[in-house]
Each structure stands twice: as structure tokens, then as C-alpha cells.
Amino acid sequence: MKLSAANLTVPGRLTDVSVTLRPGELTAICGPNGAGKTTLLRVLAGLEPAPVKLGETPLAGMDPHRRALQIGYLSQHAEPAWNLSVEALVRLGRLPHRTSRAEDEAAVAAALTALDCAHLAARGIHTLSGGERARVLLARVLAGSPQWILADEPLASLDLAHAAALLRHFRALADQGTGVVLVVHSLAHAMNHADRVIVLDNGHLAADGPPHAALSEEVIEHVWRVSARWTGPEGARALSL
Ligand SMILES: Nc1ncnc2c1ncn2[C@@H]1O[C@H](COP(=O)(O)OP(=O)(O)OP(=O)(O)O)[C@@H](O)[C@H]1O
């Protein structure tokens, strides 16, 4: 089912933004600081009142339990209040499901493994490094096996190897039909790994399309006010400033 918003306006934050996101695609949302990326992601996750639809059903009227099964959201500044063990925290991702204990445990184990967190399972979340904590919080989202994953800067605190592994995992999920929507600041990540890029500029939709078009040098100059050149082969492009 598509996730769509038509003529979305959040006063002072988004102006007349229309997007239709498709399952099975990896979509990157890019834009300068304050452009409205987090606001758009939160709205698409149903966390702020707005005319967003999943298929033909308005998110606002959807049963919260059903919505939680469909949409997994990772906040940019998630900070668990309690020092739960990593395993207990990731298990919270199973809360919307009414499945057997064995199924839940299998999903938790798979999510921990996918994010390279299995060795941290018994640790308290407050004892982890920033990057480890970021991986665990994303593992919690993955454990819920949502149809849509909306993640706000999931790569921001990951080292090179974990970022590469996570991008491969997102690609595999998208190829299996999950809708993956990521806020990213690295335009090279968006260019090389996304199927589609949405560019926001000061609350407005500046571009929406395949990466080579949405992140053309002209768009980058216009939106980021930076003169930059793409170099290197397709799939491994680098941005030279
Ligand atoms: N709760 C709020 N109330 C009022 N204004 C807000 C609120 N949250 C964000 N804003 C403003 O809305 C604009 C968009 O913010 P948003 O967090 O969506 O930007 P962003 O593109 O995610 O930025 P960044 O790259 O810095 O994380 C900014 O000008 C911000 O100051």
C-alpha cells in the first residue's frame, strides 16, 4: 500500500508538499538543516495530525495498533528513559504483534543480528556508546517487521562498516517489499543507495525523483548553495566540493 500526503502544510515548517511513497522503494529525504525533513517524516509516520493516507485509509483515523504494525519510526533523538537491557528494549518492538513467544524471540534475534547487536543483548542501554545505542534502537524498529520503516538519520552515528551493512540491509528489505524512507545528510549515500530522492528546501518540495535528477549539481547549487561536482562511476559516486 502506498503512503501518501497531498498538499501538506504545517505552518512555518512545510508548505504544500505532496508525496506518494511506494512500498519496495528506498526513498531518501534530503535537504539543508531546518528544511523540514524530520517534520515530513513525523507526519508520514502519523505522529503529527495531517492528511496522510496509507492506501486509501487516512492515518489519523487508523487504529493505533494497526498503524504500529504497519509503520516503524526511528526518531533522530531517541533517548530511552530506563536502563533496560538491549534485549528487553528490542523486544518492545514486538508489542504490537500478537504472535507466539517463539516467533517474537526469533524476530528479536534476527533484528539483533542484522544490526550487529547480538553481543550487546545483556547490556544496559545506558551503558552503550552512541553508535551502539543507535543500532539497538533501530533493531527495535526492525523487530516489529513493519511494512514501512521511517528512520531519521539512521546512519548519523554509525562507523563506515556498520553504515555499509545497514545500507545493504535496507536494500534487502526494500527488495522484499518494505517501504524504506530515510532522512540522510550524506548526498553520496542518497545518490548511490536510494531509488528515489525527495529534496526539501525551506519547507518546500524542491525535487522528487531518481537520485541523478533530484540530486543534480544544479539542484545542489540551488538548494544547498554549494558548487559541487559528482565524480566516479554510477553506484559509487562521490561529491567533490
Ligand atoms: N515543534 C516545532 N514547533 C515549531 N517549529 C518547529 C518545530 N519543530 C521544528 N520546527 C521548525 O521547523 C523547521 C523544520 O524543522 P525540521 O526539524 O523538520 O528540519 P530538518 O530538515 O529535519 O532539520 P535538521 O537537518 O537540522 O535536522 C525548522 O525551522 C524548525 O526550527
From TrEMBL:
Gene3D superfamilies: P-loop containing nucleotide triphosphate hydrolases (3.40.50.300). GO terms for molecular function: ATP binding; ATP hydrolysis activity. Keywords: ATP-binding, Nucleotide-binding, Translocase, Transport. Pfam families: ABC_tran. InterPro entries: AAA+_ATPase, ABC_transporter-like_ATP-bd, ABC_transporter-like_CS, P-loop_NTPase. The keyword Plastid does not apply. Residues 3-227 form the ABC transporter domain. The keyword ATP-binding applies. SUPFAM superfamilies: P-loop containing nucleoside triphosphate hydrolases. Part of the ABC transporter complex HmuTUV involved in hemin import. Responsible for energy coupling to the transport system. PANTHER family: HEMIN IMPORT ATP-BINDING PROTEIN HMUV (PTHR42794). This is ABC transporter. It comes from Novosphingobium sediminis. The lineage of its organism: Bacteria, Pseudomonadati, Pseudomonadota, Alphaproteobacteria, Sphingomonadales.
